[in-house]
């Protein structure tokens, strides 16, 4: 698994306002062992009103079926067992846009 890949993940139920359930997610880092870092996506375009979000349009390359929002502020580590299927990958421009937003959000 590599940075920029898009996978269907089963986050499960989390409660509160965290993204949950089965959804696409962008892989950010393949962490040591059985854990990886992802950013969940949502098809709810209203999420663009929040800071630290990036919109993706569906394409054959990324495998998305709908316009989606990468919800960067919901960055999280998950067990690799929650990764169900690779559906596509992002281009260098999209990865860079997400990287810039992540750095801004984290203050680095």
TrEMBL record:
The enzyme's E.C. designation: 3.1.-.-
GO biological-process terms attached to the record: mRNA catabolic process; rRNA catabolic process
Superkingdom per UniProt: Bacteria
Keyword ATP-binding found: no
Protein keywords: Endonuclease, Hydrolase, Nuclease
GO MF, any single term: DNA binding
Keyword Transferase: no
Pfam families the record matches: PemK_toxin
Family from the record: Belongs to the PemK/MazF family.
Function: Toxic component of a type II toxin-antitoxin (TA) system.
UniProt name for this protein: mRNA interferase
């Amino acid at each position: 698994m590599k940075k920029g890949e898009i996978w269907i993940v089963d986050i499960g139920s989390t409660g509160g306002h965290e993204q949950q359930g089965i959804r696409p997610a962008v892989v950010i880092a393949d962490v040591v062992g059985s854990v990886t870092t992802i950013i969940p996506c949502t098809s709810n375009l209203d999420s663009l009103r929040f800071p630290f979000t990036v919109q993706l349009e569906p394409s054959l390359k990324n495998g998305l079926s709908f316009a989606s929002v990468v919800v960067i502020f919901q960055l999280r580590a998950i067990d690799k067992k929650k990764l169900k299927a690779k559906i596509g990958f992002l281009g260098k421009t999209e990865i860079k846009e997400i990287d810039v937003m992540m750095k801004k959000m984290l203050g680095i």
